Amino acid sequence: MRLFKLFPRQLVIADRLSRQAQVRLSWFDWYYTHGRNAEATCRQFGLSKSVFYRWKKRFSGKRLKTLEFNPKSRRPHRLRAMTTPLPLVKEVIRIRKEDPLKSKYEIAAELKDRGLTLGTSTIQKIINRYPQLLDLDRKAALRKRKKLHLAKQRANRSLREQSLGSLVQIDTKHLYLTGKKYYLFVAIDCKSRFGLATCYPNISSAAASDFLETVLAGFPFPVTNINTDNGSEYLLHFHQGCEQKQIKHYFSYPYTPKMNGRVERLIKTIQEEFLDYQEDLLPELKDINKKLTAFMDKYNYQRYHQALRYRTPAQYVTNYLRQKGD
Question: Residue 31: what are its φ and ψ, rounded to 5°?
């Protein structure tokens, strides 16, 4: 029994038609042998007219391969052009490059704060349209997952009372002041209780490295050892800064704040004696740091410490250096 009445079997075999193409060929075989009645053909095979006519337009009796599915792109020849103003597009690109992990919702919120309105779906289209922004996203995620492997050593307790600068503890506290988020970096010398503190707008190893320079310049004695927790801000630039200055960098055990107990106590003192009484702080970082510096001067030069036998840290440092000089 012949499968097709109109088309020779040899032609079908020669063209090596797939099973799907042979099914389509049976449509047109039936169509041409039944008076070219498209409606009857569609009823016979359960086809929609749009499907039948689409394949009929492609079909050629001399080239049965035309019935094979052609996986060519179905992308329209003319695409709808984006109507988003170019300055807005450039602003989205700039924000995304500065912070590759910032989501479309965060970008929309940042633009809104500047008086600019742009939908989150439009922002996502802009990100998708520029492959370099997607690459930034991927690379930033990889950088975030990549860990800096260090041989983390623990500071011996004896370093706390060995000498001035033999162990300086540094820690960070998150603050919400005047409706904004800041990061308070605090350092204290375990021997003399001499301390320094500075607020930063972000928490990063670059900010921690800058605070390290502040500590080394502000302490009236050299620092030989530093102890921090395992926060990422104390890696990379901060750790490299310690190595360049030949300062030994020790790390606390994870989730063990008591290993940094003296700086934790100083943070509590700053909170109770300074931050809790600052209702008139201006929302300017320089204003916050100006008042914070004044408080730390009071802490170092005027506040008497029971642990120092009711002397100030500055008095203790002066007496210690005098005794060492003698």
Answer: -60, -50
For 160-178, b/e burial (b = at least 16 CB within 10 A) is: beeebbbbbbbbbbebebe
The model's pLDDT over 109-164, given as tens digits with 9 standing for 90+, comes to 889 888 888 999 999 888 888 877 766 555 655 555 555 566 788 988 899 999 99
Tracing tokens 């003319």 back to the chain, one arrives at: 78
Largest CA distance in the chain: 122
Query: The tokens of 49 are what?
Result: 């007219």
Nearest to 105 by CA among 83, 131, 123: 123
Q: How many residues does the chain have?
A: 326
Q: What whole-number distance in Å separates Cα of residue 106 and Cα of residue 102? A: 6
On whether the CB atoms of residues 24 and 12 are closer than 8 A, the answer is no
Whether the Cβ atoms of residue 92 and residue 118 lie closer than 8 Å to each other: yes
Asked if 157 and 280 touch (Cβ cutoff 8 Å), the reply is no
Tokens read off for 125: 């289209």
Rounded to 5 degrees, φ, ψ at 298 are -65, -40
CATH annotation of 157-325:
3.30.420.10
Rounded Cα gap, residues 181 and 174, in angstroms: 7
Q: What is the pTM of this model?
A: 0.56
Six-digit token string for 30:
């039936």
Helix ranges restricted to H, 65-224: 86-98, 104-113, 120-129, 131-145, 205-218
